[in-house]
Amino acid sequence: MSPDPGQPILPVRDVGAVELFARCTQNMDDSALWSEFMRRYAPRIKGIIKGTLRQLLPADSSLSLGAMHENDLFQSTVVRLVENGCALMKRFSGSRESELLVYLAVITRSVVRDWVRHYRAQKRPLSESQLLDARREVRSDSTSTRGECALERELLVREVRRLSLRAIETQAGEFSRRDKLIFELYFSHGLTPRQIALCEGIGLSKPGVEKALQRLKELVRSAMDTNPPFEATT
User: Fold this and answer.
1) φ and ψ at 26, to 5 degrees?
2) Among residues 234, 20, 232, 14, which one has the least CA distance to residue 105?
3) Which of 20, 48, 86, 199 is deepest in the core (most CB within 10 A)?
4) Nearest alpha carbon to residue 24 among 14, 38, 45, 10
């Protein structure tokens, strides 16, 4: 969001989290904005990198690998954020810092998981004892991260829903309003095609609703392939 020309410009340290994030996407060359962003969130991103490495790698290797590759993974996360004109940053649609932190966590963990998959592909399979160590490490961290993972899944669902509705609005033409209603009734409220057909304003039989749903699924699938949401934590 752009600052209101009728209001005094706040020092960057006083700018709210979501507004700071938005300004960074609009001013990639503004060193003051980006320095403030890094001051606030670089430590958090690095902490997420360390925690994710502990979850995904055996205990005897996560510390040494983290020390060796933490900076590289941090740089890769920043690159992921700013590539293609900050495309990923611009897709953030939250309104609170808590949502922003979850969004950054999802992206950071995605970067780390990509790196771990590549690392494992180049190494021999882990021994049984190493796998047991890794499972124990994941279990020990699971309680503290369960709530955060639930927030990540909620944010992912919200992002998928937003992309789906946008695809329906932009591509469904004259049937956009009815298609949006069918989408909401089916995917958000759990109504069956028969129940949807009985709703006022639908004007379709049960087979007609089923045909519309199939078309909507194909439309949404195409939108996901073209503009996929950020990866969820598994």
Assistant:
1) -90, -15
2) 232
3) 48
4) 38
